[in-house]
């Protein structure tokens, strides 16, 4: 057992892990998986926005950084333009100093993106999204249309208030769902339509307050009813009271040899949460299509043989990178695109052989990179992700704060505190919130009441429904077999006993 140099808890590095670290050519980690995860997540502010001006075109914009953050911020139009070049901020590596302070100095000077979005149309307050159309407050979305207040929803249409949901339409308050339609308040359901307040259904339609059903129609409280009875119940608006469901130790579909939760079409992936199509990987959170990767968050488009990445697309043979896309052989880079063989660089587009934003020849690059890595091994920096605070975000603004509570740092998010008569007050946090017209139309269309909670409290509640992202050693409530599960209490069942019970 190893002792985490951050939290002092012990953690295991298995034989298999050792092989991977050798293949990545990095020292074994000195921090435990949880502390490493927290450190990566503290690089990402995805939902705290500020109004300010673009430091390039001076237009009014929405940004992750307030005007007084001391960070140079460009709007996407300016940032992706040729009005500036990242090479203007290039510097020599100073071998008398550590790497991370030099990187952080550069981070403050190189213009950063106001919001990390790619190809989004007619969408406001969207963040870490690609190909969104007419969305509002969509976070970590992909190719969504007309979606509001989503978190990590992909290929969805006309959806409001959903988290970790894929390929769904006209859904409201669904969490960890795939291929659902016209449904509300579903957890861990797939291929369902017209279902409401249900848990763990597959291939069902027209169900209310049901759990653990397969290919059923017209059910209330897990009992089949006539169409008329069903329609009467729907009309009464009596939703969101559920039966006590039978809970599986871990929710996995078409997957083998995985632990964690919400795993689809994956194999050999221990300790993973919310992953689809992943293989031979470990410690992935919210990741799609990864192969041979360790320690990834919010990374999609086939990441391959990569280590410690967050907010990336299509990174191959890369390590310790943030918010970079379509690159290979990158280390310690931030916001680089379509580049390869860069080290400690920021904002590089179509670059190669770059160190601290300075260009080198191929052979100079490899000599200098090796020398820096040796230096970083001596300083204990090599193999560590960017330290917390590198991005300049306050901890409470980052995703880390949603999963790892830091004592003494319990801040409220940035809110407008001026009271306006016309706005509702959140029943939980007592702050006023807006219901936008696009949202009102959705509630009318689905005949839903307007929410009593603000978007932030709604988001927090959905995180609670998605459950813990920790694993516990427990036993099946029926056969007593040992299980690894994210559920710390309540009865849980192994696959065999679960299938006996529900079929
Ligand atoms: Zn630790
Ligand atoms: Zn601008
Ligand atoms: Zn609230
Ligand atoms: Zn069992």
Strands, helices and their partners?
Blueprint: E1 2-3, E2 10-11, H1 15-24, H2 33-41, E3 50-53, E4 60-63, E5 73-74, H3 76-79, H4 99-109, E6 112-113, E7 117-118, E8 129-130, E9 136-139, E10 148-151, E11 178-181, E12 184-187, E13 190-199, E14 205-208, E15 217-220, E16 223-224, H5 227-236, E17 252-253, E18 256-264, E19 267-276, E20 282-288, E21 294-300, E22 307-316, E23 319-322, E24 325-331, E25 340-343, E26 352-355, E27 358-359, H6 362-379, H7 400-403, H8 437-445, H9 455-466, E28 472-475, E29 482-485, H10 495-502
Parallel strand pairs: 5-6, 7-8, 9-10, 11-13, 12-13, 13-14, 14-15, 17-18, 18-19, 19-20, 20-21, 21-22, 22-23, 22-24, 24-25, 25-26
Antiparallel strand pairs: 1-2, 3-4, 15-16, 26-27, 28-29
The structure holds zinc ion (4 copies).
């Amino acid at each position: 057992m190893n002792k985490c140099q951050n939290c002092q808890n012990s953690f295991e590095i298995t034989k298999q892990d050792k092989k991977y670290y050798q293949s990545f050519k990095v020292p074994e980690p000195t921090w435990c998986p949880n502390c490493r995860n927290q450190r990566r997540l503290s690089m990402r502010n995805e939902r705290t926005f500020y109004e300010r001006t673009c430091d390039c075109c001076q237009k009014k914009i929405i940004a992750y950084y307030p005007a007084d953050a001391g960070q140079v911020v460009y709007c996407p139009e300016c940032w992706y333009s040729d009005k500036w070049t990242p090479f203007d901020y290039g510097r020599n590596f100073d071998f008398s100093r550590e790497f991370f302070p030099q990187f952080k100095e550069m981070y403050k000077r190189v213009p950063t993106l106001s919001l990390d979005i790619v190809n989004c149309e007619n969408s406001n307050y969207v963040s870490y999204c690609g190909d969104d159309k007419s969305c509002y407050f969509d976070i970590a979305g992909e190719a969504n249309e007309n979606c509001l207040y989503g978190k990590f929803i992909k290929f969805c249409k006309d959806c409001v208030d959903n988290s970790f949901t894929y390929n769904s339409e006209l859904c409201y308050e669904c969490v960890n769902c795939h291929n659902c339609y016209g449904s509300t308040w579903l957890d861990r359901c797939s291929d369902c339509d017209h279902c409401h307040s249900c848990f763990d259904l597959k291939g069902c339609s027209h169900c209310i307050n049901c759990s653990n059903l397969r290919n059923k129609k017209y059910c209330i409280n897990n009992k089949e009813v006539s169409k008329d009875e069903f329609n009467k119940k729907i009309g009464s608006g009596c939703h969101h009271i559920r039966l006590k469901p039978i809970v599986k130790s871990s929710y996995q579909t078409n997957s083998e040899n995985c632990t964690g939760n919400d795993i689809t079409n994956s194999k050999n992936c221990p300790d993973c949460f919310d992953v689809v199509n992943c293989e031979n990987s470990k410690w992935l959170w919210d990741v799609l299509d990864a192969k041979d990767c360790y320690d990834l968050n919010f990374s999609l488009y086939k990441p391959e043989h990569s280590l410690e990445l967050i907010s990336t697309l299509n990174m191959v043979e890369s390590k310790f990178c943030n918010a970079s896309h379509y690159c290979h052989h990158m280390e310690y880079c931030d916001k680089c695109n379509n580049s390869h063989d860069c080290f400690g660089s920021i904002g590089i587009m179509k670059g190669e052989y770059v160190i601290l934003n300075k260009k080198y020849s191929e052979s100079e690059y490899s000599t200098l990179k090796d020398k820096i890595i040796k230096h970083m091994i001596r300083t204990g920096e090599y193999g560590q992700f960017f330290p917390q605070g590198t991005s300049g975000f306050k901890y409470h603004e980052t995703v880390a704060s949603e999963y790892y509570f830091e004592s003494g740092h319990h801040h409220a998010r940035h809110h407008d505190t001026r009271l306006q008569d016309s706005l509702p007050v959140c029943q939980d946090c007592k702050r006023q919130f807006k219901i936008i017209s696009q949202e009102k139309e959705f509630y009318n269309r689905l005949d839903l009441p307007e929410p009593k909670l603000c978007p932030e409290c709604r988001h927090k509640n959905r995180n609670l429904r998605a459950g813990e992202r920790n694993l516990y050693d427990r036993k099946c409530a029926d056969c007593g077999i040992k299980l690894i599960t994210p559920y710390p209490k309540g009865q849980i069942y192994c696959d065999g006993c679960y299938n006996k019970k529900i079929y």
